[in-house]
Design a protein that fits this description.
It contains eleven helices and 13 strands. It has an eight-stranded parallel beta barrel, surrounded by seven helices. It has a single domain, classed as TIM Barrel (Alpha-Beta Barrel). Helix 2 packs across helix 3, helix 7 packs parallel to helix 8 and helix 8 packs across helix 10. It is α/β, with parallel strands linked by helices and 329 residues long. The radius of gyration is 21 Å and the shape is globular. The protein binds flavin mononucleotide. The site of flavin mononucleotide (FMN) has 22 residues, from strand 6.
Length: 329
Amino acid sequence: MANLSTKYLGLDLRNPMIVGSCGLTSTVTDIVALEKAGAGAVVLKSIFEEEILMEMEHEVSAAESDGYDAKAFDYYDYKIKDKNLSAYVKLIEETKAAVSIPVIASINCVSAHEWPYFAKKIETAGADALELNIFALPTNFNKSSADNEQLYFEVAEKIKEHVSIPVSLKISPYSANLGPFIQKLSETGIAGLVLFNRFWSPDFDIENFALIASHVLSREDELALSLRWIAIMSERVSCDLSASTGVHDASSAIKQILAGADAVQIVSALYKNGKEHLQTILDEMNAWMDKHDFKSIDDFRGKMSQAKSEDPAMYERVQFMRFFRGTEH
Ligand SMILES: Cc1cc2nc3c(=O)[nH]c(=O)nc-3n(C[C@H](O)[C@H](O)[C@H](O)COP(=O)(O)O)c2cc1C
């Protein structure tokens, strides 16, 4: 039986499979079940900066229609933040009391302003680490890509002033200069990067001319994007890397570790197959390690990273040359 234990963000994990932030990590009961199913760690459902602001706007307009003066906004801001945060703090405290696997809290931030207030309380509540999910859709036409990327560096800088638990940033692949961007972020003192987040995206219902959500859950073929970038970046970064998006089975998790991931996050596959799917993945990973005589995760981590490849250019190839020439189908 191979040893699956590993380290991520300086935390001891019994195995590299982390249940990513989602609805399955929003209650203590579900998290206890995930621990039982084999999870190495969990990232709690995010507390959303946006959600808090939306709720605040709703409450403020309700208050205004009740005859309150808009000057009372500060009071509502405080009250609503406190209500949301208290529930989140309670979730962290109760989860920590109920499970022994590491519990990583998560804040979904769209600015560098609101979250430091939460971050300290999250640390005090006992979270083992904090994952900051950052993305603002670049639709401000007065901003350059450097302006947009600046947000990430501000967040990485600011968080150091507020918490001492390890912090990871969950980022998107949408950067005009992705490789150097990831490398520079990794050098800011953060403990880890999660490659990549996957977004809610709009789709069209062409019969009713309505906006609908595109696939909420990922498909297996979405693995390729993060696999390529974990392989390219794994020996070029100064922090841990966690792979996310498109990990649906043992082979995709193994591929991410071969590419150099320190940990692997999984969400959609658990929605599709149930929490017990984690145990199947771990059993299959174990059997694969035995078959290839790998005694520990470190025995094969990064074995197929770009840096170790005999043909590193393959990781950077983006055109299907042979297909375009028409010699192969
Ligand atoms: C129902 C659902 C809820 C999610 N909620 C969050 C969230 O609160 N915060 C977050 O950072 N990611 C959230 N995600 C994104 C996942 O953590 C993950 O990045 C994404 O699903 C890609 O991984 P997968 O291919 O394993 O599903 C959510 C995903 C789903 C399907």
